Amino acid sequence: MKKxxxxxxxNLLAAMxxxxxxxxxxxxxxxxxxxxxxxxxxxxxxxEREMIVLTENYKExxxxxxxxxxHYLTESRVKGIKRDALKKIGNVSYLWFIVLGYQERHESLxxxxxxxxxxxxxxxxxxxxxxxxxxxxxxxxxxxxxxNCLRKSGIRTVRDLIxxxxxxxxxxxxxxxxxxxxxxxxxALTEHxxxxxxxEPIPWEATMPSLDKELAAFYNLNSSNHPSY
Length: 229
Description:
It is a single chain. Helix content is 57%, strand content 0%. It is an all-alpha fold and 229 residues long. It is globular and about 60 Å long.
């Protein structure tokens, strides 16, 4: 018989099914400080409304009906918000931060990213910080509109751009960025031999933590054919 948890955060972790998904033996009632930080990090992925609903339901122990009445929502709407929130933080990428602890998982991801980046740089002849790979995207001489769209989306360096285009439908997350702009970007990166000749874009996961996205992008680059092949 499954143990019932009444206190926060054990009740939330049980609802997330952390141990079932991860095959772990996490003591929900006795998290370390680093594991609590991992949970806080996972919760940071939620929208303000999702965070409010989970906090009121699990921490303040309010019923769905009470939450609905307080916020002038239907009970089904509150249940939907709760379901979406649990699904978002139930992403395996976030669960690792809880099971291992934030610091341990973060340091592990950084090591893996460095290893994959070194592999990519070795493969493509990138030998130092002065290489175009690490420079501002302005060095690629894009038309002003393309450059401004990329910059407003937080893409600053050529490295950022190369990792970003590994994701399927990457242009959809950039406002006013059409097919022509996409072709200009890919043509520039291909001209400088930054992209494999053949590769499959990764399905986009908006809720994946940033370091996990970076690692997935480098994995994709390193598992594809070099442009000279």
